[in-house]
């Protein structure tokens, strides 16, 4: 009888606990901010919580501030794709026009951080993540652009690179991929997540002390265009809407977005509890009970 009561109490407590768990989001709270763009990408957040994103075909970077105001931040953005803020508040940009990576300060002054690999143009830096040392990892898939004069890659594959802080020479850190795209690392610097969009998988790597990667693990069988993390370690990936996975690689949620494709994602706002989604011609947001790590 005692054993039976213990089991029943355990079930009741578990049920009661489950009933108090709040959902991460409510689908009906998805909000359209604007649909005035051609194709949005590269969402990132600054220290204040303002969100920046790109409209790559129109060669512009936009800002959506914490007061709900949308404004044009920069024209002639180098056909900016993925973006990320460094600790000094500079916007680091994958400038796809000339296959470079730029640093853009608050006054829109441009500094080229990376321009080639062993004298050859890379495929097209797509997305990036900055580590605690100030170096950054970036994916380099080949997507033919109509504004390029070249018609083929100069390199032997599509890879992931690491550029140490203050250096001009990058090194290959992951090469056994078909088409790497979305990328993000954990705040403690232990793990790097990389999506292979063509193979439709996402890997987790251990980050070594020299910034090299090791112990690749297949985390889940789904690739993505962009990704971000919350403080619980959940991974948010974009594609046909937004899918959410826990750190074990188990799918725990899906945000439906009424657009053909979602390119990128970040948490923003003063409390970092609102998800911003770049989706085809639009920008959306949705309030959550989670908090982003950026």
Automatic annotation (TrEMBL):
Pfam family, one: SGL
Keywords (A to Z) from UniProt: Hydrolase, Signal
Superkingdom per UniProt: Bacteria
Transmembrane segments: none
Residue stretches making up the SMP-30/Gluconolactonase/LRE-like region domain: 39-280
Originating organism: Pedobacter petrophilus
Cleavable signal peptide: 1-18
Protein name: SMP-30/gluconolactonase/LRE family protein
The UniProt record lists the keyword Phosphoprotein: no
MF annotations from Gene Ontology: hydrolase activity
InterPro entries: 6-blade_b-propeller_TolB-like (IPR011042), SGL (IPR013658), SMP-30/CGR1_Lactonase (IPR051262)
């Amino acid at each position: 009888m005692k054993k039976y009561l213990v089991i029943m109490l355990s079930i009741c407590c578990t049920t009661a606990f489950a009933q108090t768990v709040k959902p991460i989001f409510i689908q009906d709270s998805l909000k359209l901010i604007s649909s005035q763009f051609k194709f949005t990408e590269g969402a990132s957040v600054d220290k204040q919580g303002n969100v920046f994103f790109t409209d790559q075909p129109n060669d512009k970077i936009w800002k959506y501030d914490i007061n709900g105001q949308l404004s044009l931040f920069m024209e002639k953005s180098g056909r900016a794709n993925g973006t990320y803020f460094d600790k000094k508040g500079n916007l680091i940009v994958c400038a796809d026009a000339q296959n470079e990576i730029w640093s853009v300060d608050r006054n829109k002054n441009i500094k080229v951080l990376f321009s080639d690999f062993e004298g050859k143009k890379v495929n097209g830096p797509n997305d990036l993540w900055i580590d605690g040392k100030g170096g950054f990892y970036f994916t380099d898939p080949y997507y033919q652009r109509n504004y390029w004069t070249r018609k083929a890659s100069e390199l032997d594959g599509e890879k992931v690179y690491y550029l140490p802080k203050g250096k001009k020479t990058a090194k290959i850190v992951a090469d056994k991929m078909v088409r790497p795209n979305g990328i993000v690392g954990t705040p403690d610097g232990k793990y790097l997540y990389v999506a292979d969009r063509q193979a439709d998988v996402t890997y987790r790597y251990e980050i070594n002390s020299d910034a090299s990667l090791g112990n690749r693990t297949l985390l889940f069988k789904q690739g993505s265009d962009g990704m971000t993390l919350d403080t619980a370690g959940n991974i948010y990936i974009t594609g046909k809407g937004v899918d959410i996975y826990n750190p074990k690689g188990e799918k725990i949620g899906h945000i439906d977005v009424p657009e053909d494709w979602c390119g990128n994602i970040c948490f923003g706002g003063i409390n970092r509890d609102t998800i911003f989604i770049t989706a085809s011609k639009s920008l959306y947001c949705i309030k959550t009970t989670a908090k982003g790590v950026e």
